[in-house]
Design brief:
With about 475 residues, this protein is an alpha/beta fold. It is built from 15 helices and 18 strands. This is PLP-dependent aminotransferase family protein.
Length: about 475
């Protein structure tokens, strides 16, 4: 069995013993060393199994005593409601709330920032890769890179695409300055002012800003917090001819964390081909899955070229390097023309450094550790939210990524809470920015990119108090 998930199997066995009352509330569990010996695993794996159970609320650690079975929390929590945006095409205008969000000062507790904490990144290895790039790049990296991007980096990205079910050549890959530039280049290639783009609701707030700047309209689609966008509603819009492009995040959407089933991905791709409508697939969280296998991309099901896949290393490896990419389908020529006009190429040294890092097999090892950390961190955040937030709070239980969507009781204004939290050094993103409609006023997006700690727990506790006032 893959050791990255062996601790989950051990934890499941212990939980079954608790469920069947073979082990009862208050019973002391075997020591970490004894557990490792009984199951023939490392001390680290044994500890992770207990940490997993602790995060879910099944056991508790007592100082200088060990682990004990605890009673389950008395409060029960449900998933947030499926979204129900109005089925109307909307024009957009500048949102003052988004401007304030971008300009808010950084506090010590950045629950608003959907980026991994630096402590979770292989900084030392990336520094070595950068030094190698400085020494080996032509003219020390001062010359322009190829317009499509560093050849070795494109080769490595083509290799990564195989892991998500696609077979692509390095020549198909287009390097961009992060995933958002990739999305904008795709939009510029397949839309024109006045067109309507369909997105799931809620959806990443920067998409709405891009639509506004490009003179595009938006149609928000209902979405389930677990299974994602409502394809029936999308097909109705496609059949009516009111949508000229779709921009969706099928794998661990931001902010819901939903994930489309493979059967739904196949249906979505078939719909795009049937109605000859381009799909821009944002896959930026795809590598951060908590299960045994990576979800396949919609791009991997596409045989006619209507899907354009956008991703980056910003969520998994090096946010500051700003390296993303596009797998462009049939739109490669149009996207390359747009890139030649607006950015020409991407920085030489960061591309070379990432290519060297990826070529030496360090990324897979890093991802295994990062996925494991985010999974456990997600459970700890959920446990804290369940303990400290008001009765009636709902929150997601994502199977990947690192954001939680929290739905508070109806009369709570999360814009006001976010402003009050800033005064206490806590940043959090109100739900109202994830839509162009008057929705999600009682919702928050909380990033768990920061490892769980006493400070994080205290911050969530303070947020819960603000929400309960």
């Amino acid at each position: 069995m893959n050791t990255a998930f062996l601790y989950v199997s051990i934890a499941d066995k212990i939980r079954q013993l608790i469920d069947t009352q073979v082990i009862r509330v208050g019973d002391k569990l075997p020591s970490v060393r004894r557990l490792s010996e009984e199951h023939g695993v490392s001390l680290t794996t044994a500890f992770q199994a207990y940490y997993h159970l602790e995060a879910q609320g099944w056991i508790e650690a007592r100082p200088k005593s060990g682990y004990y079975v605890r009673s389950k929390p008395s409060k029960s929590y449900a998933l947030p409601s499926a979204s129900q945006p109005d089925a109307i095409v909307q024009t957009l205008s500048n949102d003052e709330l988004l401007t304030r969000l971008y300009n808010q000062p950084d506090g010590p507790l950045r629950f608003a920032a959907a980026v991994p904490a630096p402590d979770l990144l292989p900084v030392a290895k990336l520094q070595k890769a950068m030094i190698h790039a400085l020494r080996t790049a032509p003219a020390g990296g001062t010359t322009y890179e190829d317009g499509k991007g560093n050849a070795e980096l494109r080769q490595q990205i083509a290799r990564l695409a195989f892991g998500s079910g696609s077979v692509v050549t390095p020549d198909e890959v287009i390097i961009t300055a992060g995933c958002m530039e990739a999305v904008v280049l795709c939009l510029q290639a397949v839309t024109r002012p006045g067109d309507t783009v369909a997105v799931e609701s809620p959806s990443y707030f920067a998409f709405f800003q891009a639509f506004e700047k490009m003179g595009l309209n938006v149609l928000e689609l209902p979405a389930n917090p677990t299974t994602g966008v409502d394809l029936d509603v999308l097909e109705t819009a496609l059949r009516a001819g009111v949508v000229q492009a779709c921009l969706l995040t099928p794998t661990f959407s931001n902010p819901l964390g939903s994930c489309l089933l493979n059967t739904d991905r196949q249906r979505l791709v078939q719909m795009m081909a049937r109605y000859r409508t381009p799909l821009i697939e944002d896959d930026v969280y795809g590598d951060l899955y908590f299960g045994k296998t990576r979800p396949r991309t919609c791009y991997s099901f596409d045989t006619e070229g209507w899907v354009m896949l956008c991703s980056s290393f910003s969520k998994s490896l090096a946010p500051g390097y700003r390296i993303g990419w596009i797998l462009p389908g049939r739109s490669g020529s149009a996207i390359n023309r747009q890139k030649a006009v607006f950015s020409r190429t991407c920085p030489t040294l960061t591309q070379a450094a990432l290519a060297h890092f990826l070529a030496h097999g360090r990324y897979d090892h890093h991802l295994r550790q990062l996925r494991q950390t985010f999974h456990l961190t997600s459970l700890r955040y959920q446990q804290a939210i369940s303990a400290y937030f008001p009765e009636g709070t709902r929150f997601t239980n994502p199977e990947g990524g690192f954001v939680l969507w929290v739905e508070l009781p109806d009369l709570i204004d999360t814009v006001q809470i976010s402003q009050q939290a800033l005064l206490e050094g806590i940043s959090v993103t109100p739900g109202a920015v994830f839509t162009a409609q008057q929705l999600y006023q009682n919702c928050l997006r909380i990033s768990f990119g920061q490892p769980f700690s006493a400070a994080v727990e205290e911050g969530l506790k303070r947020l819960g108090k603000l929400a309960g006032r």
